[in-house]
Design goal:
The structure holds 2 protein chains of 2 kinds. Helices cover 47% and strands 14% of the residues of chain A. Chain A is an alpha+beta fold. The longest helix of chain A has 27 residues, at 53-79. Chain A is elongated. Classes of the chains: A alpha+beta, B mainly alpha.
Chain lengths: 170, 404
């Protein structure tokens, strides 16, 4: 559903950072910031919550590890005991490389999948650039439209290249 | 804070370090007559310890330059000061020539006569050849240390051509890593693996290197934190920098564990008699506690401690982990060297005194070198560029632990 936003466009990261800090110092809401590259310290300036993505990695990694150990234990010990080089059937140390690889594989794939799903970046997704050039050399600061005049005032004072109201599906 | 602040160690530190060094030298001199084998092994262990500290500091400089890292530019003087001990360490390593027959089985007459299993190594382990290799490796490292330091100081003096010096240092770094990879591998074989000529491991060089780099990182981090506590490097060792150093410690401690596991797992799995001797001896009763402690101290504890983000920028936690890792590398080398000659571990005044002497020697060179130049490079183009990125200074202090 389309909503209305207040969009300020800048040509450098510094003015963007300063504006973000001013807004957050007054506890005003920021919808999102669009920049062509990651800006150091922006997450802190926006006071974003810590990402929950590591939990996905941890749980998926543990699952991968468990599956690998269980499968190897089942095949090499329970189902058909195998004598390799005279070692005991349950030579867990020998299971570790595969357990390690599956931990990394499951953790990595699940992290990427969770990120793409959460960011709604699935195949066939229609692009929605709020401003032309945010993937090139522009920086956009997007605020939800509000009744208070204060956000607009701050944006005007920050000297953006352009300040506009836009309706968009973000 | 002026950028060209000079570090000056209190006179007491020089005196204490000098006394410790003399005590170590005295203990070594006494030990050479009373227990020559034990003393030579300790001289090898501690000589290699300070050699590896110096070369891993050089590797740190080179790796930072080759990856184009800008964050560590302001910390450069610390690794530069660690490499100052290299000439003294080289003298110690070359002095092993006089103790070779006590510790290296291959240097004893007729060592290869009744050992067909190692007969193929007779040319490689020929005495002159081994020590010429050592000398060449040490001379090359000293040459690069001299080039790194000289160019770095020349950059301070000539702001006009700082960029030219910057690129020259990058070229030296590229040449150094190639030389280092080959010479350090040969060095680790000649100095350590040849204590037990019948054993071999093709990944021994990288194993020693992994521990060495952790040692260097731990020393650099510890120095950065301590200098910061004393009011130096407040910008170059900010919370962000500590966190980056913490990440490197975490990563390379884990790299060491990875290499450790690879070597152990392959030898355990292959179960070939001439390969397993190394581990059979080290996992037998008197050595086993130290074998396990080695893995715990060098990986399990640092991994558990450094896992979280906030702890990586906690100076106190970093100090503890760094000291632990520095002790851990000593233990790692101890477990590589001593079991080849002894049937049970020995820790006594001799071990403590010789280690203290060598560490004090390295420390003397460190504080002398650190005080010999401005503690932050004066006209580094990277630092100048960083200073322009003003938005970083205005970042509010991190309260949420968000990835910067």
């Amino acid at each position: 559903m389309a909503r209305e936003f207040l969009v300020a466009t800048y040509s450098d990261a510094n003015s963007l950072m300063k504006t973000v800090e001013t807004l957050r110092a007054e506890n005003l809401k920021i919808h999102d910031v669009y920049a062509p590259y990651p800006i150091h310290g922006l997450d802190q300036a926006m006071r974003l919550n810590r990402t929950r993505l590591p939990w996905v990695t941890l749980i998926a990694g543990l699952c991968g590890c468990g599956v690998a150990l269980a499968f190897q234990f089942y095949t090499a010990v329970l189902d058909w005991g195998m004598n390799v080089g005279g070692k005991p059937d349950n030579s867990t140390l020998a299971f570790l490389p595969i357990a390690f690889e599956l931990t990394v594989l499951a953790g990595g794939l699940a992290t990427v999948a969770a990120l793409l799903l959460r960011a709604r970046l699935y195949p066939g997704r229609r692009e929605c650039l709020i401003v032309e050039g945010v993937t090139d050399n522009r920086f956009a600061l997007v605020l939800p439209k509000s009744d208070s005049p204060r956000p607009r005032q701050i944006l005007e004072q920050s000297g953006p290249d352009k300040l506009e109201e836009k309706e968009a599906e973000l | 804070m002026t950028p060209n602040l000079r570090f000056k160690a209190p006179a007491l530190q020089y005196i204490v370090a000098a006394v410790l060094f003399l005590a170590g030298a005295g203990a070594a001199a006494y030990g050479l007559t009373a227990a020559p084998e034990r003393t030579w092994l300790n001289l090898l262990l501690d000589g290699f310890y300070i050699t590896s500290l110096a070369v891993s500091a050089m590797f740190f400089i080179a790796s930072q330059r080759l990856t184009g890292a800008r964050w560590s530019a302001g910390l450069r003087r610390i690794p530069e000061a660690f490499m100052a001990a290299l000439p003294a360490a080289a003298v110690l390593m070359m002095a092993l020539y006089f103790g070779r027959q006590w510790i290296y089985p291959w240097s004893r007459p007729g060592a290869f006569a009744h050992a067909p299993a190692i007969a193929g190594k007779v040319q490689y382990l020929a005495e002159p050849w081994v020590f010429v290799r050592s000398a060449v490796a040490l001379l090359l490292w000293m040459l690069f240390a001299w080039l790194f330091r000289r160019t770095s100081l020349a950059q301070d003096r000539n702001p006009g051509s700082s960029l030219a010096y910057h690129y020259r240092l990058n070229r030296y770094a590229a040449a150094f890593v190639v030389v280092f990879a080959l010479s350090f591998t040969l060095g680790s074989y000649d100095w350590i693996i040849s204590l037990d000529p019948s054993w071999f491991s093709t990944m021994f060089g990288i194993y020693v290197f992994a521990g060495t780099f952790v040692q260097g990182l731990a020393a650099i981090t510890l120095a950065a934190v301590l200098l910061r506590d004393r009011g130096f490097l407040t910008q170059a060792a900010s919370d962000h920098h500590l966190r980056d150093l913490g990440k490197l410690l975490f990563a390379f401690s884990t790299f060491w564990a990875y290499i450790w596991t690879c070597q152990y797992l392959l030898i355990w799995y292959g179960n070939i008699p001439e390969e397993v001797t190394h581990y059979v001896r080290r996992t037998s009763a008197p050595w086993l506690p130290f074998f396990l402690a080695n893995f715990a101290v060098n990986w399990i504890i640092p991994f558990a401690v450094l896992l979280g983000a906030p702890v990586k920028r906690n100076p106190r936690a970093l100090k503890i982990v760094c000291v632990l890792l520095l002790a851990g590398h000593w233990l790692d080398l101890y477990m590589l060297i001593m079991p080849s000659a002894w049937s049970a571990p020995r820790f006594g005044i001799l071990e403590a005194a010789i280690f203290a002497g060598c560490a004090a020697l390295a420390y003397l060179f460190f504080i002398w070198s650190l005080g010999a130049a401005p503690i932050t490079p004066v006209s580094d183009p990277v630092l100048a560029a960083e200073a322009l990125a003003t938005h970083r200074e205005s970042v509010p202090s991190p309260a949420t632990g968000v990835e910067p």
